[in-house]
């Protein structure tokens, strides 16, 4: 589960990504100057994006775990969202630059040379990116880091782009060896992957907009509801009004809980603390739970099996809790099933 150790793990991996990314960028530009290939320039341009975005991501991962303060009562987790948005913008810019360069290359195909050495460099760089990208996605998902996961997806996309470029340039390489005029294929490949890169930028930017707009993450909501259901007490008559907000690797959860009228304030507090501890055990100390305790109503009796002197009608059966009814903004009745 995410926490201080998870934040440090995110920071270490992002530092490696930025450092290695710098070395790969230099290698790709060496390959470009050797070959004069627009397609390889495409790969090198995306490496610049990797460095800039990775550096911003590194800062975001450094600042996001900081605890809430007077100026940031909900913590600093949204720094990761800013980082992901910045990365998406850079990816889009790189994609547009590549498209423009590719169109110019189609009008006047470049003279390509030493393509064999360039291909070897790009292939090795792609393998390194693949390893780092898969590691970043795995660790990012484990620690619920949007910035690190965005970096991982970017690196994996970069790897796929590189392999696509390599396949296309192999056609160019063997075509040139056989004496065919295939130089136009090089900028055509760059154009194709410029469009793919721009599409990736759209997905990253959409994800950050969803976070800013507090769009619910279905997977997280499902995990929270499952945890509550598994730890349900008989005194928890109803849970509703469930809302989840994401702040970096942390979550803010709001819900309404219905308790019997006969319970004292101390007893209600004990039950809410148990509910809080169950969720923190699952999601870590980064989860903030806000519970509004509500007394039961007369219509709650039919779904409450407790022995109660204030019962207004007989118990019929317990209400089955589901993800759908737990997010509703009302206390439930039996006919809500």
What does the model show?
The protein is mainly α and 337 residues long. The chain has helices spanning 4-35, 38-63, 79-107, 115-142, 146-177, 185-212, 218-230, 265-283, 323-326; strands at residues 238-247, 250-259, 287-295. Strands 1-2-3 form a three-stranded mixed β-sheet. Strand 1 (238-247) and strand 2 form a beta hairpin. It folds into two domains: 4-212, Cation efflux protein transmembrane domain (Alpha-lytic protease prodomain-like), CATH 1.20.1510.10; 218-336, Cation efflux protein, cytoplasmic domain (Alpha-Beta Plaits), CATH 3.30.70.1350. The longest helix has 32 residues, at 4-35. The two termini are 34 Å apart. Helix 2 (38-63) packs parallel to helix 6 (185-212).
Biggest sheet strand line-up: 1-2-3
Shape: elongated
Instruction: Please report the distance between the alpha carbons of the first and last residues.
Output: 34 Å
What percentage of the residues does DSSP assign to strands (E)?
A: 5-15%
Task: Please give the count of helices.
Answer: 9
Main pleated-sheet profile: 3 strands, mixed
Order of helices and strands: HHHHHHHEEHEH
CATH level 1 name of the largest domain: Mainly Alpha
Mean of pLDDT: 79
Helix content: 55-70%
Structural class: mainly alpha
């Amino acid at each position: 589960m995410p926490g201080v150790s998870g934040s440090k793990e995110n920071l270490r991996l992002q530092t490696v990504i930025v450092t290695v990314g710098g070395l790969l960028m230099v290698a790709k530009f060496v390959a470009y100057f050797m070959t004069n290939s627009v397609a390889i320039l495409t790969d090198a341009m995306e490496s610049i994006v990797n460095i800039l975005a990775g550096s911003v991501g590194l800062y975001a991962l450094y600042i996001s775990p900081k605890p809430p303060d007077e100026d940031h009562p909900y913590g600093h987790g949204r720094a990761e969202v800013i980082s992901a948005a910045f990365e998406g913008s850079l990816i889009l810019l790189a994609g547009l630059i590549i498209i423009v360069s590719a169109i110019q290359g189609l009008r006047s195909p470049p003279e390509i040379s030493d393509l064999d050495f360039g291909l070897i460099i790009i292939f090795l760089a792609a393998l390194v990116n693949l390893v780092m990208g898969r590691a970043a996605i795995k660790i990012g998902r484990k620690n619920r880091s949007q910035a690190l996961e965005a970096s991982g997806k970017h690196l994996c996309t970069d790897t796929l782009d590189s392999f696509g470029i390599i396949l296309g340039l192999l056609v160019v390489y063997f075509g040139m060896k056989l004496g065919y005029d295939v130089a136009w294929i090089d900028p055509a490949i760059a154009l194709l992957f410029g469009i793919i890169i721009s599409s990736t930028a759209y997905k990253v930017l959409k994800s950050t907009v969803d976070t800013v707009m507090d769009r619910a993450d279905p997977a997280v909501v499902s995990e929270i509801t499952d945890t509550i259901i598994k730890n349900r007490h008989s005194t928890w008559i109803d849970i509703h009004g469930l809302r989840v907000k994401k702040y970096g690797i942390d979550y803010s959860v709001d819900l309404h809980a219905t308790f019997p009228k006969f319970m004292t304030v101390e007893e209600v507090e004990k039950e809410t603390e148990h509910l809080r501890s169950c969720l923190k055990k699952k999601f870590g100390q980064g989860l903030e739970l806000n519970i509004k305790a509500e007394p039961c109503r007369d219509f709650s009796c039919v779904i409450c099996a407790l022995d109660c002197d204030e019962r207004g009608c007989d118990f019929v059966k317990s209400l089955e809790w589901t993800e759908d009814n737990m997010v509703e903004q009302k206390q439930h009745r039996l006919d809500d099933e």
